């Protein structure tokens, strides 16, 4: 491990060449009968004496070295001191044992994650099987060209390749990055990778190229020249190397068809990322949405959530079962996020002396939930929020959601609106004596849930019957609910 930041940058760029070499080693190329170039990859194949696990371990080495050191026991602690951002007020921050060049070295090596994900996901997306006659030349085994492979089989094959890339490469890397403490640059790097993977795919068609991993400065030998050792020239050269490094935004998206198949895994990672906001020293290090009352939410996570919602909405007409399952999972995760620890959604810089928070935690809980629900309502519309019936069958969580939801039918099926309204009216998550700003936020989200949505007479009846017994110790909140119901524009 070197503390020389120039070496770390050069090593990261050089490592992209190693990734390129590893993946090209298992590849094959040919020209088919239509004079089209056919490129195939075997990123998880055994090459020589090295099996696929050993190859992955080698390729992951820079990221593994960085994240292992950053996650090491006692490598970070919570400290407090005057903050220039908050006009000298005492604020908490994550104190790390690494300093200066070593800290930069860890971040630089960790940023190799973008190159690794770029390579494996791109290979999964662009791989094409070699024609049978070409495989005979490559392998020496007899074969013959048969009937063309159906398009459905090709699509299934691509989905399987993406599954392997997700399970073996993307998920292990991002789990490590989104749970870091006190290394904001790498945490934001992980979020940006997930954002790129979940973007709409149309705009990225045919732009991926394995050779993008190669750096002209290395290929030309310029990195080895004596003049690069000069401090000023070396700094300029490193800046150029940084520009040539792969950025997360260049990673091709995995596609909505794949996303809806692996929705639960994606949402679990998303929730892990939200719960890891507390690992940031300062949310202002990245772009954020102002939710009001001093509460911010990362723009990158907002974009990821929106992309997931759009992937669900895109299949409404073509795959009703997958669409219904998507609505069910969104409902479940909205409930889990609402009932989670609101301090995990705040950067540590919002903690003051005496472990007090500079913002109202009840407001944080409501505002984060409201932000994500409003996006769901805007994208999934009334059809997804209030009309799609979700089956009660499933695990214990589904059964509990059905049991408590308003407006269930004779089979126990429920809607997102019925489940969320019931949760908000029966929650015990708030502190005693909801403050006025939090109370106003709760009123707004309940009104949003009711207004402009199709509300069944069963749901309306359940809600009306329940209102007499909710928030009995805070009558003003109970009156807020009655007022929201009375002011709403219900469609029965």
Describe this structure in words.
The chain is built from 20 helices and six strands. With 492 residues, it is mainly alpha-helical. It folds into two domains: 5-145 and 152-252, no CATH class; 302-487, no CATH class. The strands form three sheets. Strands 1-2 form a two-stranded antiparallel sheet. A two-stranded antiparallel sheet has the order 3-4. A hairpin with a 2-residue loop joins β5 (288-292) and β6 (295-298). α3 (61-71) packs across α4, α8 packs parallel to α13 and α14 packs parallel to α17. The chain is flat, with a radius of gyration of 26 Å.
Task: Annotate the secondary structure layout.
Blueprint: H1 5-25, E1 28-31, E2 37-40, H2 52-59, H3 61-71, E3 76-82, E4 90-96, H4 100-110, H5 113-126, H6 132-139, H7 151-178, H8 184-197, H9 216-219, H10 231-244, H11 256-261, H12 263-275, E5 288-292, E6 295-298, H13 299-314, H14 320-339, H15 361-387, H16 396-404, H17 416-426, H18 436-450, H19 457-466, H20 475-487
Antiparallel strand pairs: 1-2, 3-4, 5-6
Give the end-to-end Cα distance, rounded to a whole number of Å: 67 Å
What's the gyration radius in Å? 26 Å
Structural class: mainly alpha
Count of helical regions: 20
Provide the residue-averaged pLDDT: 85
Which of globular, elongated, flat, extended, rod-shaped describes the shape? flat
Strand content: 5-15%
**Helicity level:** 55-70%
Runs with pLDDT <50, length 5+?
A: 141-149
| Lateral strand order in the biggest sheet | 1-2
How does the major sheet shape up? 2 strands, antiparallel
Please indicate the count of domains: 2
Question: What is the total tally of β strands?
Answer: 6
H/E element order: HEEHHEEHHHHHHHHHEEHHHHHHHH
């Amino acid at each position: 491990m070197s503390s020389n930041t120039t070496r770390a940058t050069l090593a990261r760029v050089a490592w992209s060449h190693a990734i390129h070499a590893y993946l090209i080693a298992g590849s094959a190329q040919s020209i088919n009968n239509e004079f089209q170039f056919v490129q195939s990859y075997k990123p998880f194949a055994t090459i020589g004496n090295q099996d696929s696990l050993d190859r992955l371990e080698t390729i992951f080495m820079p990221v593994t070295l960085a994240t292992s050191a950053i996650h090491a026991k006692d490598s970070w602690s919570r400290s407090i001191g005057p903050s220039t951002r908050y006009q000298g007020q005492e604020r908490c921050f994550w104190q790390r044992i690494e300093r200066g060049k070593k800290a930069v070295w860890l971040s630089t090596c960790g940023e190799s994650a973008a190159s690794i994900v770029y390579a494996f996901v791109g290979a999964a997306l662009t791989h094409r099987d070699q024609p049978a006659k070409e495989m005979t030349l490559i392998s020496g085994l007899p074969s013959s060209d048969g009937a063309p492979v159906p398009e459905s089989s090709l699509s299934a094959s691509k989905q399987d390749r993406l599954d392997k890339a997700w399970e073996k490469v993307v998920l292990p890397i991002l789990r490590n990055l989104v749970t870091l403490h006190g290394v904001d640059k790498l945490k934001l790097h992980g979020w940006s990778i997930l954002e790129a993977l979940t973007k709409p795919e149309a705009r990225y068609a045919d732009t991926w190229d394995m050779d993008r991993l190669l750096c002209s400065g290395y290929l030309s030998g310029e990195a080895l020249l004596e003049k690069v050792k000069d401090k000023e020239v070396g700094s300029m050269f490193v800046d150029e190397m940084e520009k040539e490094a792969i950025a997360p935004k260049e990673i091709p998206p995995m596609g909505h068809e794949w996303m809806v198949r692996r929705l639960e895994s994606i949402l679990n990672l998303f929730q892990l990322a939200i719960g890891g906001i507390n690992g940031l020293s300062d949310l202002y290090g990245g772009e954020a949405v102002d939710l009001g009352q001093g509460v911010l939410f990362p723009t990158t996570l907002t974009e990821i959530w929106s992309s997931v919602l759009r992937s669900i909405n895109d299949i409404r007409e073509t795959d009703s079962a997958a669409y219904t399952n998507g609505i069910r999972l969104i409902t479940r995760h909205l409930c889990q996020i609402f009932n989670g620890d609101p301090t995990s959604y705040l950067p540590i810089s919002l903690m003051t002396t005496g472990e007090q928070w500079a913002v109202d935690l009840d407001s944080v809980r409501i505002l984060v939930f409201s932000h994500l629900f409003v996006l769901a309502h805007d994208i999934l519309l009334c059809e997804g929020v209030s009309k799609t019936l979700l089956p009660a069958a499933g695990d214990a969580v589904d059964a509990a959601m059905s049991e408590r939801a308003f407006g269930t039918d004779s089979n126990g099926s429920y809607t997102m609106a019925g489940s969320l309204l019931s949760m908000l009216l029966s929650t015990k998550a708030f502190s005693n004596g909801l403050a006025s700003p939090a109370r106003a936020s709760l009123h707004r989200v309940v009104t949003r849930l009711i207004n402009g949505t199709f509300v069944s007479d069963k749901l309306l009846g359940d809600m009306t019957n329940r209102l007499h017994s909710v928030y009995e110790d805070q009558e003003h909140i109970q009156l807020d609910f009655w007022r929201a119901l009375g002011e709403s524009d219900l469609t029965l």
